[in-house]
Design brief:
The chain is α/β, with parallel strands linked by helices. Helices cover 44% and strands 15% of the residues. The chain is built from 17 helices and 13 strands. The strands form two sheets. The protein has a seven-stranded parallel β-sheet with strand order 3-2-1-4-5-6-7. Strands 10-9-8-11-12-13 form a six-stranded parallel β-sheet, sandwiched between helices. Helix 13 packs across helix 16. The two termini are 17 Å apart.
Length: 382
């Protein structure tokens, strides 16, 4: 029997990063194994919808319910009538939430919880955003038949902060575009991207939104302890929180400490350029103070770049046993780790090769297998 699975597709059809990518990867990974129904009040963005498999059935509300606050009313409550009529077996909320009344629709429900950053780092959200996120996440965890955490760290947070029973939580890692990042780039391609962005031969790479939680300033501080021919490349959009943004703080620090010529901030990099920037790097660093998982770490491993990440969160799960780990704010230990890798070609190769092997587990196929196991368990549970 082929299961009929419905998904909250809001992020899948509208968001081009983060949870939008996660949603599309889940949907596409399952397309050959289950019958997919996508519930969305919006037609979405073409750049997002063209990435979705055609093997889906879209379910929209009546036209009059597709606008403004009425659209949100449908997503959070009235959608249950559509779910019940569709006859699906499983409904999966892909972004920390489930509609009110889902437990009365006759189908089993699953919710993916990505992180509890709004609790761990409340300053990154407004008061209203925190209230909404806290309520929606707590409601979803209470009514869901199964909660999926994207890492052991998120599972621990759910148990500690929301008191979700351990037996109700399954950890399912996200998948990454293995073919995109594993495909070796030619020397000419890597040289071209370096020339395009005026990058040196040797650079440390960080990928992620430039915001305080990502802690890129600590990497910049480590640069003062490294040879002058080593530069730092930050790739990611600029967070606009605060009168002075975190990116501006980084730029001010670089200017005050004679590091501006060794700092390269790239706010607008395409997915097609990312593999070349990864493969051109000497070392990848990701020393965020808190994450739900850490996709850029896996992308770096697939690109055969040695990784240095932070301890104390979920990053050891993403980086595996062959990466190096340092405390988030210790730029001295970070600098020592960079030197250790750069001064040993053998260590560099061992980390690159073993990291690549470790990252193979984050495949679309494995994601599909893990999700189907959960769906089947729920379907056959009274």
């Amino acid at each position: 029997m082929v299961l009929h699975v419905g998904f909250d597709a809001k992020k899948a059809v509208r968001n081009l990063t983060g949870i939008g990518n996660y949603s599309r990867r889940c949907i596409n990974a399952l397309a050959n194994d289950v019958q997919i129904f996508l519930f969305t009040a919006s037609k979405g963005k073409k750049a997002a919808t063209t990435q979705l498999t055609e093997r889906t059935t879209f379910i929209h509300p009546p036209h009059i319910l597709r606008f403004g606050l009425i659209r949100e009313l449908w997503r959070n409550l009235l959608i249950c009538f559509s779910i019940k009529r569709s006859g699906i077996d499983i409904y999966h909320g892909l972004s920390n939430e489930l509609p009110i009344g889902i437990q009365y629709t006759g189908c089993k429900s699953v919710v993916t919880i990505h992180d509890l950053i709004f609790i761990r780092h409340p300053h990154t959200y407004s008061l209203l955003q925190r209230y909404i996120l806290k309520w929606k996440t707590l409601h979803a965890c209470k009514v869901a038949d199964r909660v999926i955490a994207i890492s052991q760290q998120t599972k621990r947070d759910l148990m500690k902060l929301y008191h979700v029973p351990e037996e109700k939580i399954s950890v399912v890692y996200q998948s990454v575009d293995i073919p995109l990042f594993s495909q070796p780039m030619s020397d000419s391609q890597i040289l071209a991207i370096k020339e395009q962005y005026n990058l040196p031969q040797r650079y440390i790479l960080c990928v992620g939104t430039i915001e305080r939680r990502k802690n890129q300033l600590t990497v910049l501080k480590a640069m003062s302890l490294l040879p002058h021919d080593i530069h730092l490349v930050l790739v990611g959009k600029e967070s606009k929180h605060g009168k002075i943004t975190y990116q501006q703080e980084i730029e001010h620090y670089a200017s005050a400490n004679n590091l501006s010529s060794r700092l390269h901030i790239l706010n607008h990099v395409s997915n097609q350029e990312l593999p070349m920037l990864y493969q051109g790097a000497s070392v990848f660093t990701f020393i965020s103070t808190y994450e739900g998982f850490g996709i850029p770490i896996v992308e770096a491993l697939l690109s055969r770049v040695p990784v240095i990440a932070a301890t104390g969160s979920c990053l050891e799960e993403a980086g595996g046993p062959h990466s190096l780990y340092v405390p988030s704010y210790s730029w001295t230990q970070l600098a020592e780790a960079v030197k250790k890798i750069m001064e040993s070609p053998l260590l560099h190769k061992q980390m690159a090769d073993n990291g690549w092997k470790y990252a193979q587990q984050f495949s679309d196929r494995q994601l599909s297998i893990n999700l189907q196991k959960i769906y089947n368990e729920l379907y056959h549970t009274n």
